[in-house]
Amino acid sequence: MQNLDNLESQSIYIFREARYAFKNLAMLWSMGKDSNVLLWLAKKAFCGHIPFPIVHIDTTYEFPEMLEFRSWAKQYYGFELIIKINHEAIARGVSYKTHDPVTVTHELKTVALKQALEEYKWDGLITGIRRDEDGVRAKERYFSPRNQSMEWEYKNQPPEFWNLFLDTLPNNGHVRIQPLLDWTELDIWLYIKRENIPIPPLYFSKNGKRFRSLGCWPITHPVNSQASTIDEIIEELYHTKTSERAGRAQDHAEPNAMQKLRAKGFL
Amino acid sequence: MKNLLPLEAKSLNVIFAGHVDHGKSTLIGRILWETDAISKEKKETAIAYCKKNNIAFEYAFLLDSLVEERTQNITIDVTEVHFFYGQRRFRIIDAPGHLEFLKNMISGAAKADCAVLVIDASSGIGDQTKRHAMLLSLLGINQIVIALNKFDLVHYSQHSYETLSQECKSLFERLGLSYLSIVPLSAKAGENIVERSSRLSWYRGGSLLEVLLGLKSSASAESSPLRLPIQDIYRFDDRRLLAGRVEAGKIEQGDLICFFPSGKKSRVKAIHHWPAESSPRLVTAGKSTAIQLEDEIFVERGEIIAHENSAPLVATDFSARLFWLGDWPLVIGAPYIFRLATGQCMARVLQINRVIDGSTLEDLKPIPIEVKKNETAEIILRTSAPIACDPFDQIQSTGRFVLADKDRISGGGIILKALPSKPLHETQSLSRISSIQRIKFLGHRSGVFWMTGLSGSGKTTLSNRLEQMLFHRGILAYVIDGDELRSGLSKDLGFDAQDRRENIRRAAELAKTLAKSGLVVIVALISPFDADRKNARAICEKQGVLFKEIYIDAPLEVCKARDPKFLYLKASKGEIPKMTGLDSPYEPPQQCDLHLLTAEESIESCLGKLLDFIIPLVRISPDKEKELLEDPAAEI
Hints:
The complex is a heterodimer of chains A (267) and B (636). Chain A is an alpha/beta fold and 267 residues long. Chain A is built from nine helices and eight strands. Chain A has a six-stranded mixed sheet, sandwiched between helices. In chain A, strands 7-8 form a two-stranded antiparallel ribbon. In chain A, helix 1 (3-21) crosses helix 2 (33-45). Chain B contains 17 helices and 27 strands. In chain B, the strands form six sheets. Chain B has a six-stranded mixed sheet, with helices on both faces. Chain B has a six-stranded antiparallel β-barrel with strand order 7-8-13-11-10-14. In chain B, strands 15-20-18-17-21-22 form a six-stranded antiparallel barrel. At the A-B interface, helix 1, helix 2 and helix 7 of A face helix 3, strand 2, helix 5, strand 7 and strand 8 of B.
């Protein structure tokens, strides 16, 4: 089997294990490239059905193109969409104008997710993170427990081998299920090309710039690129020496920002 | 597009294992640096970090990402990185060397196609080198490259290489492992990583990367017999779909398939994938799939689909090799959750045959009664229900299992072979207290000693004396005799053939239960029929209770003369119909475990023989006893 078949099969396996083990499951979806591959794989895993709600943590700093894609995709795939905004933080005046990126990311993403978990009591949460995104995510497991405060005990993770995953819930917490861990940025694009998966237009070059990774618009910057087709993006990534999240300010706001964010529950 | 060939290729998963501080992360960091697989930004971050903290640049910093990893200079959890070299794509798994993080090392190693075992040439083979090599063999990784690192510290000496190579060879021989090459190098100085080093001009082999280019991805299990464990059953629309991944072999529309362990059969009506037009007729090993059956038979998650003529093993007892990661030791008799492929049930360890000290690779002597954290053992396992599996050396994915202790995966192992389900002397108890715990508490093993013989042959006399003598030797014994049974448990029974048989059955059940509680049970019953005694033996042995039949033999005339209960006298007056030995036959045991002739030998001599027979069976060997005494708190 070729690389993509292998990755696809393993991701489907993880999806199916998640659905079997956790009855109150939801999937996070940011409309980005990984999220859309995740959605596609969910359709494959469940033979055309998505048997759990899709959750978008809306920071209110979404690119308009992304919001447009959101409505289109909901219609196209036919899933149950839950949109969660941390209204309380916004009312308190948390914004990129007044606060640093780590604080805003924590408030509008992590805390919003926490509020959603309290409301919907999900026991399993499917996410689209990949090991190759950054060194801290590289340490992740496919089934990764979080305690009630959503904290990640990264120094004492459960062993995981031979596709035998954690199938019970930590005390009042939830389990993050991460079917894309083994995929690289390149694999994602090769798969989008092979399967013809719809993605938002922001990834393609416009006026010599494109986005490699999408987040809140005030802290997400495009990179210089002429790649305006998927083939060109693949070619570019094969030769690039710039990291994928170089345009994401929250990662670089302070040393070990990602570890701090993730230990507190960030994706 | 040009030069994109490796993108389509499956990546080769390589685990870097070895003793802590032997330089695994440095070596990987150096490989990434040299193959230009590290982003500019990451290089700059690592350099800036070192500058800011006023420390020398370490290649390991390119890898270790947790703050604790950098400050303590150790790898806590597995990291995976991809890189391209030549026309190949590699996924490197950097595993922690610290004993503390062994579970993380195994989590990483379990998905590797091959391994690089890193050894510091200046300090030689370390404890973790041995432990990791043993685990690699247990995980079935047979492509191993030995990287002798830090050759800069031994002045690139050929003599060091030869000495160390010899040590590695004997280590691998002991483990039954083979290696592909032994590569001398220096991660720090960058010698013999990509290019062959001129400082190692005496070395004839390839650089590390040249050797890695020659490795193979794990062979596909496509040519093996079909194994498709059911993950789940979906009924989202009018179709009922069995979802799962083909772990070995292939499955095709129209195939007659069998489910194991249930033994049910059906035919594959169709294979359904999404989008519908991508549905294949044939699916091969490695692919996740969903099949529809011709018949709506009831099958469940955990069953394994196979073709009828190449069935997996179905059994409850297995010999297995296991590594234990649990904070609490693995104990004989305690219940664990057993998971193999998608199946799950309870399991207990019946016997521990070997425990290997991971740092010396020596067998622990005497054989311990438990397996401690980070130890490897050979055990006999019994599952609560029959399971389908394969010996690991035949089909890997259905030959490996994990044991979970209260929801936490605490050990992993491989199936060596299935065993006939015959009872072993170690009791399988449903009690929360294991037989071993009882043995520790009482200081002896239990069993049923069944005395059979005519009335007057001496059963009661011998049994009562025996009970007393055992008791005075610290062995808790109890006698079940006919009168006691008849006055209580069997009060409702008469003396016809059917009731006598029932009386024996009850006695056997009671004896078994008392023996399971830890006692040495002496049963003194005429029990004239061989079939009834065989049944009593079966009742006990089925639950792992030791059962011995002792024939207390005296001629009828002697028994009549003794007549301790005046039974023969009463019978002669017609008060007892069907008296054994008179008008009802006595069937002597065909093969008893001990035969005592009470008319020819004195009571003392018979008692001596009884003690000589029973005590070795119930006593714990002196070294085991010593161990129990030294560790009174174990298992509690």
